[in-house]
């Protein structure tokens, strides 16, 4: 049986040369990987570990969105939010899927991968890296701590014509959180979770035509990123880290 390390190495080998590097000003080249997971799901720890591995990559924005539909079996996920469950169900509806499950990864709002399938995940990330980026994002005045920053969005010079509505969203996340689980399917385990989403909320709507400038306030040093997505749960057209 292949170990997670073996699968992860194979998945990384599937990437084109240079895919792990990110030059200055190319932040909108990020591939967004959303993991829908739960502390009450016995199948989730390998996927949670895989998300940890993804945080080492500059060209990927991995995000853990904990859902609440496992809470009934005896352990309430401390990071779960009904909004995360709603987002996962929205992806399922748009993608024509009949059900939601954990662990599930959604790549750039489009492709569905079983969360612990490192090989398939690597292939899908590589495919998205090969696609042209529809939106160019410029971040000005990135602060070291609290403050306002300006984000400019425009259609990429070589990108397709964009049609709205497009949602500009601010996501804030904690790089790592550890939990001692005392009940449920994972009782007795201490597990670490990477890039736990704390908030994900719209900050602007855009029609994709003229350039748009958005001012974003970051009240503290919690990591943040901008997601530009076809509303409400469509393709992610661009993403940029803000700090």
Automatic annotation (TrEMBL):
<feature type="signal peptide">
    <location>
        <begin position="1"/>
        <end position="21"/>
    </location>
</feature>
<dbReference type="Pfam" id="PF06764">
    <property type="entry name" value="DUF1223"/>
</dbReference>
<protein>
    <submittedName>
        <fullName>Putative secreted protein</fullName>
    </submittedName>
</protein>
<dbReference type="InterPro" id="IPR010634">
    <property type="entry name" value="DUF1223"/>
</dbReference>
<keyword id="KW-0732">Signal</keyword>
<dbReference type="InterPro" id="IPR036249">
    <property type="entry name" value="Thioredoxin-like_sf"/>
</dbReference>
